[in-house]
Amino acid sequence: MMLAALNAFARERGLADDPLYEVKPVDFLIRIDVEGGFIGLESTVGEGGKGKPMSIPRLPQRSANIAAGFFADYPKYVLGHDKEESTAPKGWARPTGKSAAKLDAFLALVQEVTAQADIPEARAVEAFLKNASSRRRTLAAREPEEWTGSEMLAFVVGESTTPVHQLSGIRAWWEQRAGARAALGKTAVCLVSGKVSTVAGTHPKLKNVPQAQSSGASLVSFNAGAFESHGLKQGDNAPISQDVALGYVLALNDLLRKSEQRRYRQGIQLGDDSVLVFWTGSSPQQESLLLSWMDPTDEDLKRFLESPLRGLEPGELDDRAFYAVTLAGNSGRVAVRDWFQSRVGDVKHHIQRYFEDLRIGNAPLGPIPVWRLLKAVEAPSGRGLSPDLATRMVGAALRGHSFPRQLLTAALDRLRLPPADDRFEREQLRLRVALIKATLSRLPRSGPAPLEVTVSLDKNNRMPPYVLGRLFAVLERLQGAALGDLNTTIRDRYFGAASRNPAMVFPRLIQLSVHHVAKLGNSGRWLERTKSEVVALLPSERFPRVLGLEDQGLFAVGYYHQREAFFTKRSAPEDAASTGASVVSPD
Amino acid sequence: MKPAASRRFCVRASGPVACFTRPEMKAERVSYEVMTPSAARGLLEAILWKPAIRWHVHEIAALAPVQWTSFRRNEVNSRAVVGKFDYAADADKERAQRNTVALRDVDYVITASFTLVPEKTGPEDNLRKFEEMFERRLEKGQCFHAPYLGCREFAARVEAATEGLRPHESIERRPLGLMFYDFDFGGPGEEVRPLFFEAFLERGVLRVPPWEQVIERNGRRP
Lengths: 587, 222
Hints:
The complex is a heterodimer. By secondary structure, chain A is of the alpha+beta class.
């Protein structure tokens, strides 16, 4: 289904219209006369420093092998010039070793044309390639150190403006050759399209997948004995036609391509080793909106401040299909980590719910990049989260499922540690508690009392863990007000213990707070009042002995809510009366 | 003339994990959404198989929703070699860590029957004998090897299906794309080839076309 969907996407967006040609920037045109003599080297490099994009015959797969392009290629093939092999200016005069073999391969293709068809331009190129002095003159047209080896070169003959590879005769020959080659291959029913066609022996490669080889890696490959069944070799194990193989790879490569703002045009990096790419049967505009929600760049975040829910309202294309696949590189191979198929409308709905679940305190509703969330719950050493946690979390968010439990443990563990950097502490705390809140409110709703977690302070919530969390925030505040800036506050020392075993810690903390109130005198009276308000919400018997994982989460949420309520009051004292806590300013 | 078929058996197979590997994603496995006919055949053959019978799967009903899980395991790159004991124990280059995207908590009811293979049937063999044999073995929980859900390591719990089991989905017709049907082993000396069929989940039931129809669809051997 996945390959079929990708293939349909490639066809719909016109990515596989021309299977024999591809658009690549061509940096230089070598102008030659009909006898193959060198006339000039014409640069097409524009303002951006890039050559003019041009349709050229698709370059073959290369790794260590020698495979020449057709009438357009890099200097190694066209001129037999390799920067590494030729250090001295004398060296590049005569190609040696591998460069020579590459030049021969390029020439062999051209000779194939001249042997079968009567095209004067092809003969001119052949003559040029056979003539060492023409090639030397071409190289001499630029300073030796200017040649980087990655210039795309193509030919023009005489006064013509059409490059040789785009001449109709050459094109026809190239297509005929491809057809003849395909006919030689084995045919079978393609397991994607269902049509009888030539089976791809090996598949083209995906580029820009994390942790995969930079030269590319295959999604469908059978490179070891363990993958082959019943004596079938390579692509015969899963008969996929050459067209489909090219189509899905072009689609994925288009989605994975690097863009100006993003590392992946339409993908989200998840963890170190995987990337989620998605596509829809809807419009590219909608896709880019969805992307800016799922993985906002800094610019997107600024835009969302102005119009928070832009693009998530129900629209007319909501019943179109939505596909997402998480790919992970494994050196020469690409593995599928997760695969998901839905409708655009459902995904929009789930994304909206995801951010509503994450919303806490008085922060505005809006997207938060996944990496930032996970960074906030990561141990300071940068280790400790399992590599697929991001995949599972985003998968759950898009599907509207509950979050992996590991998020809750990670966030709670991180809360117990003293803050690493004071500057981002408030933001980090918000993200951690937001994750806890989202995880809690997404827990499978079973049993009599569903866990309702509010966005901001809920003074009527009488659940003991929540109230204890609030109480802890009040006690911390009392200490802060009485003793000023401290190296170690009760949060640094007791937060973990207080959230796990309240009965052990709270009696001691409350005793301590009596001294803090005494030291504060009159100015501490409003805090003391808040404290007794909070304590009044607790059941009359003693503090709970142990809190479970979910209760610890609720404790953290209560703590955060109360703490934020203090911050809000300080910044906006006029609200204090309406929240009903106290009219006395803390200062 | 078509050989006489046995009565149709309904077998319920469930398990915590299952992976019905797609051929195009079998290096790092990704499962089909629903059990494939060949996996169902393998499961039935674990309970009863004789050279004289050939199983035909007619329907696979999915009782549980499709749920996914993924994990990584240490696997090996080469196949087991006869006579080479513990062939991958210490060879680093033989080992590799690979990902699997599998199904979770699956529950199926397989409807199948078998026919006799004329050239392998002895004078004392008849349909009734094998039918009773299968019922007896299913009842007692006997098997030749542990029945499994796509991969040997994902053992299946197998029992006779009771009345009143309903598929989970009620969508009229949901396309699943082309699905692996089974291998066409061909005659001696012929190459093995995989066969595919257009799979649909109709109200939660995968209807499996008969062998002849699939052969027709995939083209006869040249």
